[in-house]
Every structure is written in C-alpha cells, then in structure tokens.
Amino acid sequence: MSFFSSSTPDSNLATAKAVLSTAASVAATAMVIRSVASEILPPEFISYVRDGLRSALSRFSSETTMVIEEFDGLVSNQIYEAAETYLGSKISPSTQRLKVTKPETEDTFILTMERNECLNDVFNGVKFNWVLVCRQVETRLFHNPRDMNSTLKSEVRSLELSFHKKHKDMVLNTYLPFILREAKSLKQETKALRIFTVDYQCMYGNPNDAWTGINLDHPSTFDTLAMERDVKEFVVRDLERFVARKEHYRKVGKAWKRGYLLYGPPGTGKSSLIAAMANYLRFDVYDLELTELQTNSDLRRLLIAMANRSILVVEDIDCTIEFHERRAEPTPFSSANNNDRQVNYCAFALPLSVKTINLVTLSGLLNFVDGLWSSCGDERIIVFTTNHKEKLDPALLRPGRMDVHIHMSYCTPCGFRQLSSNYLGLKEHDLFPQIEEEIQKTQVTPAEVAEQLLKSNDTETCLKQLIDFLREKKERQELEAKRKEQEAKDKEEQQKKELDDGGKGEGVDNDEKKSTTELNNTC
C-alpha cells in the first residue's frame, strides 16, 4: 500500500514535467518559425496566410465579425466616430486600460477604448463584443491628408464587432442606427456651447471661415428665468416638440426650423431667454448684425455657413435695420421708366449723417427666413428680438417666419419670487406680500429688481431698499404720466386755438374779397 502511495506522485510529477517540456519546446519552435518567417517571407504573404486560416476557421463558427475602419478612403467613417463615442460611455470599472482626452473647446473628459482592448455590450438581450484593433504600417506608404496626425504615426485603427450570425439584420437595421443616435446625443450633452459672430474680413473666402466663435458660458437656465411659470413651460414644450418632429416636418414638406419673436421693454430678459434655450437644447448661438451686411448674397452665404442644431439671433431688429417703402430715386443705372417703381431697401446711418441705399432688401430677409434658402440646414431656430413690435413689417410677423411671439413683460410677483430665490435664496418672507403689491402697481423690469437685490448682503435691508425703490419709481411714473397728460391737453388747446384763429382770418379775407368785388362793379 505504501509502494503505490509513494510511486503515484512521482509518476504524476514526471508526466507534468514531460508536458511542460513539450509545451516549452513547441512554443520555442513556434517563436523561431515566426521570427524566421517574418524575416524571410513578405508581409503580404503572411497576411494572406493569416486571413486564409481565419476564413477557414470561420466556416465552422457561428460568429460574424464586422470591421469598422476609422477612415473610408480619405474621409472619416461616421460609424467609427459614433461607435467610439458610444463605447466610451459603456466602459466598465473592470476595464484595465482606457484612453482619456480633453479637447480645448470641450468642458468634460472623453473616455475611449485603448488599443487591443475588448468591451462587451448588451442590446435588446443580445451580447456584442467590441475590439479596438490597431495595426502598424509604414508611414511613407500610408498618408491620409484628412488625418492631420497621419504623418506622425504609423498606425491604422479599426473596431471589430462580433456577434451571432442570426443577428446580422438586427445589427444593420437597429443596433448601428441606435449607436448613431446615442453618439449624437452624447456629443450634444458634453460639448461646450459656442457663440459665433460674423468675421467680415473672411466672409467672402472659405464659407467655413465666415463665422468666428468663442465658448458660451452664460449661466441662464429655465429654472432661473424671472418669467411666469406657464410661459416658461410653454417654451420648453414647444422646443421639445420641435426637436422631436424631424420626420413630421419632412412629411408635411416644411423646412425643419422654428422662428421666435421676443418683444418687450429693455431689461425684461430677452437675451437671458435665448441663453436658456441654448443651454437647454445644447445648441450653438450665431449672432447676426444686419447693419454690417451689404447684399442679399451675404445673408445666403452666412446661412449656408451655419451648422445644424443652432440658434440664429437677430437682436433689436427694429433698431439695427429700418425697412422703408419709398420711390427709388433716379440713378445713372436706372431708366426714366423705372423712376416711379416701388422698391424696398435698407437705410443705414453712416458717419457725417450720410444715408446710403443698401442692397439688403426686405424680400431678401424674408427669403432668408422662410424662402428656399432657409431649407439649407436642419434643426435650426431663428430668434428675433425687438422693443417695439408695432414697428415691424407685418410680412415678418406671420407664421412660418416668426412662428411664436413671446411677450417679455415687466416684472411680476412670480418673477420677483424667482429673483429672490436666485439672489437671496429666499422662498418666503414677511415682506413678500408688500413687495408683490408694489410690483403690481409699478412698471419695473426684472433687471432693475435684480440690481436692487445685489445692493446689500443683509436680506432684511435688501428687501426694504427694494420697497423704497419701487415706491419712488411709482411716484416718478405717476408724475411722468401727469406731465404727458398736461402736454397732451396743452397741445390740444393749441391746435384748437390755431383752428379758431384760422377761421377768423378766413372770414376777414372773405370780407376783403367781397369789398373788392363790389368796388370793381361800381367802377
């Protein structure tokens, strides 16, 4: 019994040594063969043999692999970029290696897969395996002018997606489109918003250089706007409905855009509402100054250069541009037959009080907002602001151009409570009823109320100063109203007096004419 117990471990140890020795010999032989083959055989032949073996083995496998390369010829592969963004959000804590980047224009870190790393994803109960494959190439033999780093590296990247063969249709029709949508949403959520203005020196060159921008860090949100709650909720619902109705706009045959008119006194929060819309939708803002443009072609050029998912802002349109319908004055280039023709043109105030006829016409602006050129882009919002809605041409105000009209009113009790929450952190106070009563009697803007709330660090003092300010402002407004009323009365009496004097003068003239006639008859 002791003989067998001592001999069995010895025999097992000898067997293990033999197996390990054989495995080591095979591995060493394989390494030698691989190194010799790589030295003697051309890379093309090795790649051909490897692909052949892989193809032969795949015949007996139920797995399908899709290769998604970084570039499709000389252009970027949209699926690769989307998959890279999507997989960055799926990296698990167990991932051993990952890559972290931060573009200069972004606010957040971007996580992506490191080379040769694997990542598993589950979609609709189906498991998918992703691998980032990087292969080395000779830089002098591989150059992509669209990849600015291609001259600095000798690496070609691709993603390999493996899954069961029976799910091929689902991958093409459902999974990959889902990844494209998710990647688009992730980029919108994490990107740094930018505000652009026109670069007039580069406007006539490359269209991509027509706008120059910087990061937009405006803190305004719908939660902090000093507006009536129902108005804010209406705007949010309208924005959400707009961005979700791409197919609906295409179905009804309309360009995917939305026009807003914000009108009201200065200081009522029009610019803050625009910033809140941009922050909510994660849309970039394009600020257009119409007075600097010379022709309708400039409008079209700038429209083409705008990106999708953006907000175009034309502030104070009643002040920056005046459309007049007047008879065109004769010019050396116009014939006498055209002297009486009605034209629309823009008159701009220039130095030395000189008025020049600009070639940006009302019809050009209308075509820019709602014509054929307005369809050159998707998911765009156009916002006009004005302090005097009544000064705008009715053609601009109709639906399709300014679809939604939002009145930015003076401060209301609801707006005051929002400002108090923003600036003082107060939801309720004993002085609130008194302040709200004064606000209802006084025309005061949210900007004026906000300024008063900044004047003291003590809450009680701040609110009392606001009450005094509201009372003083109400008194000034009452005095101003009385002054205007008296001026109107004086003007009316003056006009009545002039009419009376004119009637008496006419009677004297008639008597003189009658006397002269009688004298002539007598003679």
UniProtKB/TrEMBL annotation:
GO terms for biological process: response to stress. The keyword Magnesium applies. This is AAA+ ATPase domain-containing protein. Residues 256-412 form the AAA+ ATPase domain. It catalyses: ATP + H2O = ADP + phosphate + H(+). One of its GO terms (molecular function) is ATP binding. The keyword Transmembrane helix does not apply. Keywords: ATP-binding, Hydrolase, Magnesium, Nucleotide-binding. InterPro entries: AAA+_ATPase (IPR003593), AAA_N_dom (IPR025753), At3g28540-like_C (IPR058017), ATPase_AAA_core (IPR003959), ATPase_AAA_CS (IPR003960), Mitochondrial_chaperone_BCS1 (IPR050747), P-loop_NTPase (IPR027417). Pfam families: AAA, AAA_assoc, AAA_lid_At3g28540. Residues 478-516 have a biased composition (Basic and acidic residues). Residues 478-523 are annotated as: Disordered.
